[in-house]
């Protein structure tokens, strides 16, 4: 990791000697921009983070509910499944354009875009998780005459926790890229719109500084999810392949 | 074919009356009738595919008979499914423990489903874990336990709900001979001490002879082929030998030979 970072910085430094500043600024300049932005523009990072968390929480909740309904209620299954499958086929760009036409409020636009993009991931994993429910454990818990809520509480929900965590880990990076994209198009505040501004004013140092923030954000969110995973799945034996 | 109850004085806990169960056109259980009285330990023997698990599922209430009548503790286990809450517990061929729960959390599961308060359930469950020689392993997760220990947790989970009837489906077959023997001894001691009614399903002759008061041999096609009381035979070596060959014959020659090989190993 450290080696890779040093190599990248070296390459930036060397290329900055030969090309104009708006194409590749020197690392020192970027570092100064990072410090400057961190002191003056950190609210934009918080706004982006807030939007991201809100939308992810919603997508997670709604996706879990849809997945449960798909998995547990035969009547609604094919209907919801068709909706979810169609949703997965719609490109992110379509949702962004639709959101811009449908909603005026930028917060609603961004929330809508992210929710529509992230929701099917959760719905489909939960559905898969329910289909992967071990039959023998279900028979066991039913032999004790557990009612539906008890089956949900003692078997289905704990069984689904790893599925939700794995999906979250896989989706965080994608969600960050999407929130930036959505902000660039749909909002005047947030990291995405700031990056657009920096680009239009030829401040390549700021564009790279924002990129740096996003990388850090991604790494820290991944670490947080991994930490939660470690806490929540401490019962799971870690297999190591030799 | 009707088999008389072991102890006609008490109402039977399990009562099957000309039960038929078909899967498609295949008749897995054919006009099966038998009863199990309170406090009895009965072994249901049969070769693979004889319909043992199917009978157990009928008694558990997860399957409905096509015709005939199944009664457990005075209830129809399929139609009055939840009426048997706390009256019946099953220990399966595999331990079927929940991997995200510790030993004691698994053992208390049945009690929590019954609606017992948490602390009370915990106390009872730890008591049962101690009784199956697992004191000290309460807070271990299933992957930290050996196969034999897991099977013990599963027995503790079944016994903790204080059921009238314990069903065991090949619960000891997967363990090595020594562990399986130990566990059978432990289980029988506990079952007799608390006067539990047990129906144990097995394809192993030795398990049956060692544990049961009575043996019911299920022939292919799912009907009773032989029914023997073992109580008086238990002490006399020659009688044991005769009983063994009698049951082996009922199970069919192949199985008899197989059992012999198993013992010679
Ligand atoms: N759900 C089912 N659908 C169709 N056929 C079934 C089903 N369950 C069992 N059978 C058939 O019924 C017969 C009896 O099966 P069962 O599982 O009761 O046998 P078993 O005596 O428990 O055998 P084993 O000792 O191998 O466990 C078998 O021939 C099996 O193929
Ligand atoms: Mg079976």
Automatic annotation (TrEMBL), chain B:
Gene3D superfamilies: P-loop containing nucleotide triphosphate hydrolases. InterPro entries: AAA+_ATPase, ABC_transporter-like_ATP-bd, ABC_transporter-like_CS, ABC_transporter_ATP-bind, P-loop_NTPase. GO terms for molecular function: ATP binding; ATP hydrolysis activity. Keywords: ATP-binding, Nucleotide-binding, Transport. It comes from the Bacteria. SUPFAM superfamilies: P-loop containing nucleoside triphosphate hydrolases. Residues 14-245 form the ABC transporter domain. Signal peptide: none annotated. Coiled coil: none annotated. Belongs to the ABC transporter superfamily. Involved in beta-(1-->2)glucan export. Transmembrane domains (TMD) form a pore in the inner membrane and the ATP-binding domain (NBD) is responsible for energy generation. This is ABC transporter. It comes from Bradyrhizobium centrolobii.
């Amino acid at each position: 990791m450290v080696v890779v970072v040093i190599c990248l910085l070296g390459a930036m430094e060397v290329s900055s000697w030969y090309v104009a500043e708006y194409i590749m600024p020197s690392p020192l300049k970027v570092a100064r921009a990072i410090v400057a932005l961190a002191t003056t523009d950190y609210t934009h990072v918080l706004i982006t983070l807030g939007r991201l968390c809100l939308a992810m929480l919603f997508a997670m909740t709604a996706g879990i509910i849809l997945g449960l309904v798909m998995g547990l209620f035969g009547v609604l299954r094919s209907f919801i499944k068709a909706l979810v499958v169609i949703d997965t086929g719609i490109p992110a760009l379509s949702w962004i354009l639709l959101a811009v036409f449908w909603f005026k409020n930028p917060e609603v636009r961004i929330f809508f875009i992210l929710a529509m993009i992230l929701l099917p991931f959760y719905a489909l994993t939960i559905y898969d998780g329910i289909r992967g429910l071990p039959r023998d454990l279900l028979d066991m818990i039913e032999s004790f005459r557990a009612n539906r809520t008890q089956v949900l509480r003692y078997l289905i929900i704990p069984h689904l926790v790893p599925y939700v965590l794995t999906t979250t880990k896989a989706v965080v990076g994608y969600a960050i890229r999407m929130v930036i994209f959505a902000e660039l198009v749909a909002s005047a505040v947030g990291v995405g719109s700031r990056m657009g501004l920096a680009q239009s004013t030829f401040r390549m140092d700021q564009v790279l500084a924002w990129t740096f923030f996003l990388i850090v954000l991604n790494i820290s969110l991944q670490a947080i999810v991994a930490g939660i995973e470690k806490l929540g799945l401490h019962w799971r034996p870690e297999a190591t392949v030799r | 074919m009707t088999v008389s109850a072991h102890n006609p004085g008490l109402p039977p806990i399990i009562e099957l009356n000309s039960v038929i169960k078909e899967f498609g056109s295949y008749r897995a259980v054919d006009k099966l009738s038998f009863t199990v009285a309170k406090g009895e330990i009965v072994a249901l023997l049969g070769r693979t595919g004889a319909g043992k698990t199917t009978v157990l599922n009928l008694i558990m209430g997860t399957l409905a008979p096509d015709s005939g009548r199944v009664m457990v503790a005075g209830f129809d286990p399929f139609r009055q499914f939840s009426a048997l809450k706390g009256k019946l517990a099953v220990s399966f061929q595999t331990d079927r423990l929940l991997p995200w729960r510790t030993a004691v959390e698994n053992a208390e599961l049945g009690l929590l489903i019954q609606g017992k308060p948490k602390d009370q359930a915990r106390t009872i469950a730890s008591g049962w874990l101690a009784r199956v020689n697992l004191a000290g392993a309460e807070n271990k997760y299933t992957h930290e336990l050996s196969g034999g220990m897991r099977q013990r947790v599963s027995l503790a989970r079944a016994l903790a709900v204080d059921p009238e009837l314990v069903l065991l489906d090949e619960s000891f077959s997967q363990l090595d001979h020594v562990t399986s023997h130990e566990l059978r001894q432990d289980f029988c001691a506990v079952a007799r001490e608390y006067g539990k009614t047990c129906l144990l399903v097995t394809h192993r002759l030795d398990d049956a002879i060692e544990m049961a008061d009575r043996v019911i041999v299920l022939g292919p096609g799912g009907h009773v082929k032989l029914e023997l009381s073992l109580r008086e035979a238990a002490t006399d070596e020659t009688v044991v030998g005769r009983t063994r060959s009698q049951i082996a014959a009922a199970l069919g020659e192949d199985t008899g030979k197989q059992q012999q090989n198993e013992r010679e190993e």
